[in-house]
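Let's do one together. I've listed all components of the complex below, 724 residues spread over two lines.
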Amino acid sequence: MKKSDRQASRPDPRLSAALMLAKGVARGIQVAGRGGGTSAPGLVADRVDARLLTKLTDRLDHGVVTVAGTNGKTTTSRMIADLLEAGGMKPVHNRSGSNLVRGVISAFASQARLDGDPGGDAGVIEADEAALPELLERVAPRVLLLNNLFRDQLDRYGELDTIARKWRPAIERLGPETTIVVNADDPTLVSLTTGIAARVVRFGFDEEGHRLESLSHASDAAACLVCGADLAWHALYVSHLGDWYCPSCDNRRPDLDAVGSNIQLHGVESLGMTVRDSDDNHAIHVGVPGVYNAYNVLAAVTVGRVMDVPMPTIISSMAAFRSAFGRIERVTYRDRALTLALVKNPVGFNEVLRMLTASTGGLEVPTLIAINDLHADGRDVSWLWDVDFELLADGEGMLATTGIRGADMANRLKYAGVAEDRLTPLSEEFESSLDAFVEQIPSGESGYILPTYTAMLRIRKILADRGAVESFWKQ
Amino acid sequence: MTEQSKRCDLKLAWLYGARMNIYGDRGNIIALTQRARWRGLDPVVVEIGIGEPIPDDVDIFFFGGGQDQEQITVSRDLAGAKGEAINRAVDNGAAMLSICGGYQLLGHEYRPYGAEPLPGIGLFDVTSEAGSERFIGNVVVESDEWGSLVGFENHSGLTWLGGGATPMGKVSIGRGNNGKDGTEGVRYRNAIGCYLHGALLPKNPKLADWLIAAGARRRHGTDAALDGLSDTMEQTAHRSAVRRAEQMR
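Okay, and this is what the predicted structure of the assembly comes out as:
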């Protein structure tokens, strides 16, 4: 008997009341013109029925995929939702990236019917690092993807050790009905998934090119979690992710179930790679750029295999994938080709810089960096000093800065050794700064915009109001 | 120029750079080396790791914060000869900037909850203990010697000054050493301990130059004034951070 036959038939007045209220609040917010309205519906629904998310997800025949990690959550969960859909499932997903507990409840409530039908047959939950333990308590997933763990917004999340410590008991509680798909190139994640009851599927790179020469400054997780010695790497790909081993004990990267190799990067446009699973090599091409996205692709493909989506379906779904909003976005505005790339933390920023300088060795394209320090960005801008902006000292491209902490950013670039005649500190205000920046780009040419999260929302809104991009809650 | 840069070199020691490197504190190393270079000096940075001795000709030390586990390892490593070498260098005029975890380990001790105290090296007459609240936010400190200083604090440890200790300054926005007595940081000779991330020195150039001048004095024995630099970007960053602290208080 299918789960849905067993449960949806029984009316649940409390659940229906909670759903009705959530939908009412969401509608009210939209009528009031407040935009996405992503957490308030979840808050009220949770007060009425604290088990709403558990009940709705219990009714999903194909179960739930929960996606966690510091970087790439939104992109990867969108890839996964797309390939589940291509595989004939109907995913319910917190697609707008609202990934705290209330945001997830809001998203699932908005897609459910009042009678408690979840509105689909598979779930995809993008989980914030801090919210993961509580989300795992409410929803035992069929698949839990652990993608990476980097230093991120220390004022909000605390240090890397703190996150790992909070995740451990939640992961240990999962039973064998959950498959954890884990990035084995991350030593912390391997430690969290060793000796547990859940089934574990491991992915990682075996890549000849695109190696880093040394551990970047932003890397954490440099010590062996078994014996405390400094780890070493046979190959290093992104921050501390790679083929790691401990020189002092027998802790090392475990054997891989899915292997990514032969990565080909095509600028800020796309990438190709080979994914090897138990039986075969598969060539994959996806319209997302950079080595860091190759990890997201490998993760999504591995999850797709665990969810029994056939490989040809996965490959065609990935080929059709479009990047999540603001992560990497290309728009034409006033006859200039602008590429927006979200920057959230040191590792993510380093990877974006690596991508932008990969072909020429320096930065040649005019670039606007927009730094805010609101709650969602992290109120502490210290992290800018963990990013390797020294990469930008080479090249001729103009570097403009804006945002609430644009002045800190300009100063950071000065200390990175960027010649002062390339620096253009603009006002904190995005409207005027965007105009001033675009005017410095010759018509018909390109520019890069690198915003933190709330800066991205504002810049995107300005571009949307001026007709250059779609507004995001319509996506 | 080469002649001069050879003569004027400056040795920086970054204590436990690989382990105590959280919150962008390496920005302080970047500020010290760049501002020295812009004056034609040729600074050298040596990282001192676990088990590695302190060279006897260090001019400026930097000691940042780290995660809890690292703090324990580092405390053990500092006990004995290494701690004594740091104390001796500072008593002989070496400059020191220590922040957060580094600051705590340079005091008498750090007392965590329900665990053995971590001994410090007693360079500063301060004692730290675990607190129940985490102080997170922008901080503005008024100091006599370096004017207003701005940074970002993120600590639950509380630091109490001993009778002979001089604070770095008075907190005008934020919580500071302990959230009670209005002080932030400590100063002993040319050494400073404080809770200010940010990174601190790039937007507080007066403090950066004070450390560089002390380091240069130790190496060369003269009190030559440092050339002035155009600090427009630094001052703009400083003012915008102070404004932000005022808005968020």
